[in-house]
Amino acid sequence: MAKENTLQYVLLGLLAKQDLTGYDIKKLFAQEVGDFWCARHSQVYPELRKLEANGLIASHTGTTTDLDGKFTLTGENGQ
Fold it and tell me: Of 33, 47, 70, 79, which is most buried by a Cβ count within 10 Å?
């Protein structure tokens, strides 16, 4: 039986609540989420890149808005 990647669902759930930077996500894992879920820095950022490549999230780097450096959910179909 293949192992399911549940980290992607945790990340999508966190981003559904609010736009976050990778650092914000890491802090949440160290504080609130860390009580029941553990993820290392080396797991979080590659998973964020996969979610972005699949069109599920978007990163906002180099912008001059309040979203600078944050990840946001895209539409239901990656739009």
Answer: 70
Per-residue three-class SS string for the chain: CCCCCCHHHHHHHHHHHCCEEHHHHHHHHHCCHHHCCCCCHHHHHHHHHHHHHCCCEEEECCCCCCCCCEEEECCCCCC
∠ CA 31-11-14 to the nearest 5 degrees?
A: 60
d(CA 21, CA 61): 10
Q: Is the pTM of this model over 0.90?
A: no
pLDDT: is 53 or 69 the higher one? 53
